[in-house]
Amino acid sequence: MSTRRPPVKPADPRVHRLEVLRSERVSPSFQRVTVVGDDLHEFGDMGFDQWFRLFLPLPGSDSLRLPRATTSLWYAQYLAIPEAERPHCANYTVREFRPAGSAGAGLGAGAAGAVGFSRAELDIDFVLHRGESGELEGGAAIWACAARPGDALGLLDQGVLFNAPDDATEIHLVADETGLPGTEGIVRSLHRASMGSVIQEVPTRGDVRPLDAPDGVEVTWVVRDELDARELHARELGGRAAGGRAVDGGDGAALGGAGGAAPGEGALAALLSRSAADPRAYAYVVGESALATGGRRHLHAAGLPKNRITFSGYWKR
């Protein structure tokens, strides 16, 4: 018997050839690229944390070759593309999908007001990782920051990872910044009577954004550059409670200002402070690998069955 909730696959996955409509910095650590395409209106919007394979042309390339298959054969077709022409491929989550004709309430600051769209639009948020000297790292983030209207890209729909049982009494979400688009989609898609919690870590206070969570879902923001790594480690090793609703420097639960916390450590510390779990709940833990695996281990030890935990290490530090 599987010990993990299975992902939900799209009924009719498609390979979409798209182009950039706009690209804008929406907070210190996030660049948002809005894309359109001739067949994007056929995108099967599933809500929650719907994810996809993103294909980006290589720097200097004047063409974009995409696989045609939507089954597992896509990867063999991808590898068959000559290396000099093979696009960069990465996994990303839908931040928001707006069908043609919908209102523009989700638009960024650089767009016009709340008007109807003649074409469907899809937002993709890219986390801006930086090296020790401040330089931008990662091919996708570099592409996103340099993207201009008309730039080509491709997308292969992969479905939804979040899969709560129908009888779940509570929903608990834990994520670092790479999981924030999924967190936004999940809380927006939840039944308004849902109960539970969100622990969402972001690099800086400027990355905190409104979440359309049900009233019964408590949201805790963990702001990493306000954490003290030494204190986090002491709390984890000593098994002490993180304390308070917010694990940051400004809500009566100050952890000091020395900084240096690694991605995912603050969210994991906030989760570890919760010693019991309703065995009928459902949990979703994503982000840096240590956060995902450590969160799953803690939740199971606290009483949540393994088949009620979805976890995924998006990356490894």
Summarize the structure.
This protein is α/β, with parallel strands linked by helices and 317 residues long. It has helices spanning 73-80, 139-146, 180-189, 229-238, 265-272, 289-301, and strands spanning 15-27, 30-36, 51-56, 88-93, 96-98, 121-127, 129-130, 136-137, 152-159, 171-175, 195-202, 216-223, 282-288, 309-315. The strands form 3 sheets. Strands 4-3-9-1-2-6-5 form a 7-stranded antiparallel β-sheet.
Overview features:
single chain; 317 residues; alpha/beta; five-stranded parallel beta sheet; 6 helices; 14 strands; 18% helix; 28% strand; globular
N-to-C CA distance? 31 Å
User: What sort of overall outline do the alpha carbons produce when their principal axes are compared?
Assistant: globular
Described by strand count, sense and barrel closure, the largest sheet is: 7 strands, antiparallel
H/I helix tally: 6
Please indicate the percent range of residues in DSSP E strands (runs of 2 or more): 25-35%
Strand order of the largest sheet: 4-3-9-1-2-6-5
Whole-number mean pLDDT: 87
Q: What's the alpha carbon Rg, rounded to whole Å?
A: 20 Å
The helical percent reads 10-25%
Q: How many strands? A: 14
